[in-house]
Amino acid sequence: MNITDNIAYVGVNDHDIDLFEGQYDVRKNGMSYNSYVVFGSEKVVVTDSVDARFVDEWLGSLEAALAGRTPDYLVVHHMEPDHSAGIATFMERYPQATVVASAMAFKMMAAYFGTDFAGRRVIVKEGSTLELGDRSLTFVGAPNVHWPEVMFSYVPEDKVLFSADGFGKFGALDVEDPEGWACEARRYYFGIVGKFGKNVQAVLKKAAGLDIEHICPLHGPVLSENLGYYLGLYNAWSSYEPEGEGVTIAYSSVYGHTRDAALALAEALEKRGQTVAVFDLARDDMAEAVESAFQYDRLVLASITYAGGIFPHMSTFIHTLAEHAYQRRTVALVESGTWAPMAAKVMRGELEGMKDIAVAENVVTVRGALDDASRAQIEALADELSK
Ligand code: FEO
Fold it and tell me: Which parts of the sequence belong to the Flavodoxin-like domain (predicted)?
């Protein structure tokens, strides 16, 4: 696959993986680890490698793409092992090649491979350029998108941005994703990069000064058309702006009464014309629930009272939101508890550490099954959330 006349794709698709980064379920569509070759008139660059299980396949694709040419440089944008596992093997296979990366990336290479390739390396930083003859790479610092060593690079002659994990997406490239780009790119973003909104904003500002026709990420498809759409979503996501109006309802229920309250609230909101997404935190993909909480402007947390606090799945959900810098949203509370309901109080306390969270005035308390009093509270909360 060619991105331009001078840039080829040599990445791999992974359909064996169940959990990406040990926690994100990708069994449905797999994952891609992207690598590219830039052919200059004098020098050839390979960008990044792939996950350890696919290094041989990657080297085979690379050899075919090289068509007899020899790579001069391996540019390492990101050292996480899903992209860096093949570096040492590459360097053995191509003994004339030089590794090009940030200073911090070389420290990580020493940690992973026992060598920082002294004598065969070029350290680059913001604004450094790598000349390939008729083309060049200019490096753009992108610390913490997703690790601190990360750099993007830009090929002005082809208007190509290599964006590391930025603009990445779950899903292999040899399967059609009927949901389109945004759904799995959003789950990927908020799971993996979401905590680092400020860093993403900083690199987006730098990218705004570049003339870009193709964004080449380390996961997911190359983006070549309608780039304003993708950049707009990244701007919203990284600034913690809701992408749209809607209510995410996340619930933890044991005997079904909290679920009944969550579903009754969903129905009441839908009757009022609201978009609603409901998640059972014990059974649905928690990363989807996190994604939805960031996507929409309002969130409802519905939990049983458990051991004087909240149910473990709800606790994990709230902590995951906090870890990912959840902010600037309205949150409503639904609790259940037969003799001493405490969940709303505990959840309110957890929210206090988050920035710009408005807690809805109306709280729903279910003391057993739904009754007239709790149904009235649900209607009042639906009114408040629909204002
Ligand atoms: Fe795809 Fe942060 O590695």
Answer: 247-386
For ligand 1, whether the C-beta of 169 sits within 6 Å is no
Distance from the alpha carbon of residue 203 to the mean position of ligand 1, in angstroms? 17
CA nearest ligand 1 atom 3, residue:
80
CA 305 to CA 311: how far, in whole Å? 7
Q: Is the CB of 77 under 6 A from ligand 1?
A: no
The answer, yes or no, to whether any atom of ligand 1 lies below 6 A from the CB of 172, is no
- Does the C-beta of 146 come closer than 6 Å to ligand 1? yes
Q: Taking 80 as the threshold, does the pLDDT of residue 1 lie above it?
A: no
E strand or H helix at 227: helix 227-238
Using the 8-state DSSP alphabet, how is residue 18 labeled?
Answer: S
Q: What is the pTM of this model?
A: 0.95
State yes or no: pLDDT of 91 exceeds 80: yes
The single-letter DSSP state of residue 364 is E
> For ligand 1, what atom is nearest to the CA of residue 146?
2
| Each residue's pLDDT tens digit, 25-52 | 999 999 999 999 999 999 999 999 999 9
Among 1.10.10.10, 3.60.15.10, 3.40.50.620, 3.40.50.920, name the CATH number for the domain at 2-238: 3.60.15.10
Ligand 1 close to Cβ of residue 329 (< 6 A): no
Residue-wise pLDDT for 325-337, tens only, equals 999 999 999 999 9
The CATH number of 244-385, from 3.10.180.10, 3.40.50.620, 3.40.50.360, 3.40.190.10, is 3.40.50.360
pLDDT, mean of residues 305-329: 96
